[in-house]
Amino acid sequence: MLPQILRRKEVQKWVGVGRSTLHTWVKEGHFPKPIKLNFKEGQSAAVGWREEDLMDWFNNLKETK
Fold first, then answer.
1. Are residues 53 and 32 in contact, defined by beta-carbon separation less than 8 angstroms?
2. Which of 2, 6, 58, 60 is disulfide-compatible with 10, CB 3.0–4.6 A?
3. Measuring CA to CA, which residue among 10, 2, 15 is closest to residue 57?
4. Closest CA to 57 of 10, 19, 7, 11
5. 22: exposed, middle or buried (C-beta count within 10 Å: 0-12, 13-18, 19+)?
6. Are 54 and 16 in contact (CB under 8 A)?
7. Would you say 14 and 51 are in contact if contact means Cβ atoms under 8 Å apart?
8. Coil, helix or strand for 20?
9. SS3 (DSSP) at 33
10. Residues 6+ apart with CB under 8 A from 51
11. Residue 1: pLDDT band by 50, 70, 90 thresholds?
């Protein structure tokens, strides 16, 4: 079974934060890193998150509270 990939807007809605907050969390290591979905030279890569990685992150949040 292939993993479910969620795009940035879906992830933002699910987590309830804006784009810059999401970027900061990833940069600081508080949130899973996205994966690149396209590899075209000279273009910004579309990104997405594996649903499994997001669920692991969420479950770890619940355990630390």
1. yes
2. 6
3. 15
4. 11
5. middle
6. no
7. no
8. helix
9. coil
10. 3, 4, 5, 6
11. low
